[in-house]
Amino acid sequence: MASGCPPYIRCNGVQSHPGNILVLAVSEDSKILASGGYEGTRVWSTKTMTQLKRPSAAGSRGATVSLLWVRQTDEPRDVLYSGTQNGYFFAWRQVDETFEETLAIQIAHPGEITGLGFDTTNNRLCICSRNDIVQSWTILKDPLTGKWTAQNIFSQRYPNLSPQAITFAAFDNTKDRDIMVFGLHNNGPIYTLRGKTGEIASEWSAGANIGDATVDWREGILCLDDPAAGPTLFRLTDQTKARVFEIPRERKYKMRPRQVSFAESGLAIISGSDHGVVYVFETRTGDVLQKLQVGISQWVQAIAVGTRNVGCRDPMASGGTIVRRERGVVGQDIGERGIC
Fold it and tell me: Could you tell me how many helices (H) and strands (E) the chain has, helices first?
């Protein structure tokens, strides 16, 4: 690995996950893995890969298609937000070794919630849905009863956007932080929205479909998933394309969105493929640092990167989790969910 990083090795895995996995997310402390799919949201200990107890309504709102771990005011542990195919978003918090649901809302004009973002400073959640809707919410907690509520800030529709990912602008220190949203079709439209009203402040095009997006605000770079080519790096300052990290396509007539992620403090970029391989690229050069065979020969569309030691004890364990001593990467088959 570049910059003295030891290589990734497989340490552990979920041997019998029910149904296809559509999305993955690792908690900030890397102790818990969340998976989403047609059976709803599930949570797993990364140390033992055993499933943790979840609320009973977890699979009753349609497939879970988006996940986000957040640090939330007045909560001692990370909070998990899920978005579903039927237009629900809900929040779980951990209590001992189980999770309890604190909030559940179905948006008006329900559509698949394709992206979630969170502003920790102001306890605000932004969401985007497949039917071109973007919303922002303030998450409130009653100091006496502990009950959570969500207060809508704005809800706007942006025709033909097909939003696929969303995030708050990290270096905007105002109460109403701007929001960036990334569209799937029409050459990948990227909007910056005013955090208070949803008004379009600026827009530009990535020049290709966008399957996923991740931002390294510290370095001022943006990585997009181009389902036809591979991860694509842009500079935020001038919106120019810096590099394409090419991933071979074995299924020429099928394309699916892939999760992409920065790793190793931005020194690496990680993405899946249509042939059972997780690719680790060096951000600066574009070189392939490693090809990780995850034990399946089909789509690897869902990946998640942790940032702390996950207690890997058995480097020979098989399954869908690939872990290096200080970082964790998870890959798995996404199932039948393509570009349309």
Answer: 0, 27
pLDDT tens sequence across 314-330: 222 223 444 443 444 55
Distances (CA, A) of 12 to 45, 120, 223, 261: 11, 31, 28, 20
Distance, in Å, from the CA atom of 117 to the CA atom of 67, rounded to the nearest integer, reads 9
CA 11 – CA 74 distance, rounded (Å): 34
Q: Which residues contact 280 (CB under 8 A, 6 or more apart)?
A: 1, 8, 263, 268, 269, 270, 288, 289, 290, 291, 292, 329
Sequence-separated (6 or more) residues with CB below 8 Å from residue 340:
none
Tell me the pTM. 0.90
Mind listing the pLDDT tens digit for each residue in 259-279?
999 998 899 999 999 888 999
Spans of all domains in the chain = 2-332
Between CA 334 and CA 331 the distance in angstroms is 9
Q: Which fold has domain 2-332?
A: Methylamine Dehydrogenase; Chain H (2.130.10)
Q: How many whole angstroms separate alpha carbon 292 and alpha carbon 300?
A: 11
